[in-house]
Amino acid sequence: MTIKEEVETRLAEVIKARYPENPIFPQIEPEKNPAYGDLSSNIAFGLAKILNNPPQVLAAEIAEAISGGIIEKAEAVRGFVNIWVSQERLCALLPEIEENKDNFCRSNFGEGKKVLLEFVSANPTGPLHIGHGRGAVYGDVLGNILSASGFLVEREYYVNDTGNQIETLGKSVKCRYLELYGERLEFPENGYNGEYIAEIAKKIRDEEGEGAKEKDIAYFGRLASEILLCQIQKTLSDSSVNFSSFFYESSLYERGEVERLLSDLSAFAYKKDGALWLATNKFSDEKDRVLVREDNRPTYYVADLAYHRNKFGRGYERLINLWGTDHHGYVERIKSGLKFLGCDPERLNIILYQLVTLKRGKELVSMSTRKGEFITLDDVLREVGKDATRFFLLMRKSDAHLEFDLELAKKESSENPVYYVQYLHARCSSILREAEQRGIPFISADKANLLLLKELEEHRLMAKISLFPEEIKEAAKLYQPHRIPLYLMELAGIFHNYYHHHRILSEDRELSHARLILINCVKAVVKNGLSLLGISAPEKM
Q1: Is 270 in a helix, a strand, or coil?
Q2: Which of 54, 77, 101 is nearest to 522 (CA)?
Q3: Is the CB of residue 2 less than 8 Å from the CB of residue 10?
């Protein structure tokens, strides 16, 4: 049980004893302003509606009743119950961190439930751009957080390797290929531009020579998509983004799953204007959807439904899709279709993430994917490095627009948030090395007098690291990886303030031992956090 959970339990006991007819389980939150305590609860506002008493009066009664034990003191402030955790309990946390170290952030919140996390799934028609990068890093870190929280997570990339976009890719590449031999083929109106198309054409020429001239568009589309998928996989690897599997859309056709789906949906479908429609408007979709076009070709919607039914059939208790915000209209479309198939759409969680705007200082970096003019994820990785790329892409909630300042990401100063956090880990390491050089041995927490850690800044630091497991649990519960970099930035600010106000190593050996244990625990928490983010924790900077 975490310190926060212990306080919630204590508060719940008091509420049950004082107001037995009104059982409300209290929720507490970290207090932003340390002057108002470590934790805060709005329980009095909920009780006020039931008991018809002013929140401030109830908060004062509760604050008086809960003081003692783990709670050093509690106060009523504008109807909130503000709580200070006892110094003894915070000090007792340090041996727990020292004993668990890398497992301090882990819990059994997920109870071993099987989760399939699908993310990126960019069409293999071009390199990954920075927008794809946001989804890639978000999904990868969410997978790490869910795994640390006791879920059994598999990560999947859905490869759209059939359909119009692959045909258009094939036409685009064949045009560029024939141009290398002085021949002309009309370039498709909505064809893929960009230097990468010409490079693929050159690769085909170099490997196959003129032999590919007689190949059809389908051949060029298939070959080009394979080349691009290999590049995508390398980019993901360079970004430390990992997948358990790559699922190919074409396999749904090869195994007859698309055909079976159409057969199973026939009872709910109808003909109109030569096409076959599904009555999705019957459920939550805004209108009915086409299953089969006038030319008897299934739409991409059919394959997507077949893929989701396939996922439901693999025995996962929870399905998570991470999509760009441009897919917002597709959410109800898929969920409505699943209802016809007898699949519970509540088991499917779809997270939409907003766009990324690249900046250089105050200047915007312009991009146009259709014209082939865009900053690839590879470009950003080369310019600012993997660690900064991942950290910056995680600094906002998924539903918030994200601005990525390339110049800031390269700075080696406290202005750069990833540098600021990594420097915290390096500084802790430096202090521990210095202690060894000065002949101050590191002793275990059970042998140190930790109650000497009584400075206000030490209290704040211990209170903050006590909340780390809670941040992981909340990030898992709400699918919010951004909570971890924000937590680490706040922790860095508290630590650096402490470091500037107090000497860690002094002539007082007993105090130095206690502070070294605190430093070592902070270091462990930061390393855990950076590990979840897939970011290095340097010993020196």
Answers
A1: strand
A2: 101
A3: no
Partners of 360 in beta bridges: 363
Number of neighbouring beta carbons within 10 Å of residue 53: 13
Residue-wise pLDDT for 328-368, tens only, equals 999 999 999 999 999 999 999 999 999 999 999 888 887 65
Task: Give pLDDT tens digits for 391-449.
Answer: 999 999 999 999 999 999 999 999 999 999 999 999 999 999 999 999 998 999 989 99
Tokens of 352: 């939409």
User: For the chain, how big is the Rg over CA atoms in Å?
Assistant: 28
Q: Looking at the predicted structure, is the pLDDT value of residue 370 above 60? A: no
Tell me how far apart the alpha carbons of residues 393 and 142 are, in angstroms, rounded to a whole number.
13
Beta strands 71-77; 80-85: pairing state: antiparallel
Distance in angstroms (rounded) separating the CA atoms of residues 493 and 424: 9
CATH of 3-85, one of 3.40.50.300, 2.40.440.10, 3.30.1360.70, 1.10.10.10: 3.30.1360.70
Pairing of strands 114-118, 318-324: parallel
Residue-wise pLDDT tens digits, 441-473? 899 998 999 999 999 999 999 999 999 999 999
pTM reported for the whole predicted model: 0.94
CATH (one of 2.30.110.10, 3.40.50.10330, 2.30.40.10, 3.40.50.620) for 119-254+354-410: 3.40.50.620
**The amino acid at 48:** A
Residue 267's contacts (CB-CB under 8 Å, 6 or more residues apart) are none
